[in-house]
């Protein structure tokens, strides 16, 4: 049984009351979050970034790891990516593709000063969560008649996620003194945080997959993830409109 089987279950697998509860939970989750969402940097870290000068490897590794562990949009996407991956080599391949994309655009975006609206890029990141949930539900094969390349999609969305962080970092005007080593250290921290978060997710998923409830709730879980992605998109697009 695989993701296509979830699509075969149809909407009947999710009762109206469950739809309501899922949407309510997701709405409370996002409305309860601070104004600056997943790519925000804490005020203390912001001040440190603005005032620091010279090579500071360990502090930037710490901030990178902290960003990833608290970056729920990254984690939601990774959760969707590994949802139906059972072999560690497959998990490693997809996570590596995501990390490659994330690394390239983080470094390129900051060094080349590529500026993208934080609202726009975070809305696109929300869309990546929706996309992966629909992919897991087998929607594209039903709608389009073929399966988009999942590896290519993971790499592309990794590139977009990296631009999200690069856009936020540029707002804090990092000192050019030690910029490249600090950026590399920050990215190393991001990958460390990703591995830590991924390890926890895999442990939980491993236990869950051994239970009979996994297939009963797999469809619901992906619908919940899709709902969260839509809410993130709506939040960011609303912010973009209001800020004009």
Descriptive overview:
The chain is globular and about 55 Å long. It has helices at residues 3-9, 16-31, 43-51, 57-70, 72-82, 88-111, 118-136, 139-144, 150-170, 179-209, 213-243. By secondary structure, the protein is mainly alpha-helical. It has one domain (56-243). The chain crosses the membrane at residues 64-86, 116-134, 184-207, 219-242. Keywords: Membrane, Transmembrane, Transmembrane helix. Pfam families: HupE_UreJ_2.
In short:
With 244 residues, the chain is mainly alpha-helical.
Q: Assign the structural class, choosing from mainly alpha, mainly beta, alpha/beta, alpha+beta, or little secondary structure.
A: mainly alpha
Major sheet description: none
Count of helical stretches: 11
User: Helix proportion of residues, in percent?
Assistant: over 70%
The best one-word shape is globular
Determine the strand fraction and express it as a percent band.
Answer: under 5%
Instruction: Give the uncertain stretches in residue-range form.
Output: 1-5, 8-17, 30-38
> What is the H-and-E element order?
HHHHHHHHHHH
Strands, total number: 0
Give the termini distance in whole angstroms. 47 Å
Give the overall pLDDT as a whole number.
82
CA-based gyration radius: 19 Å
Kindly give the count of domains. Answer: 1
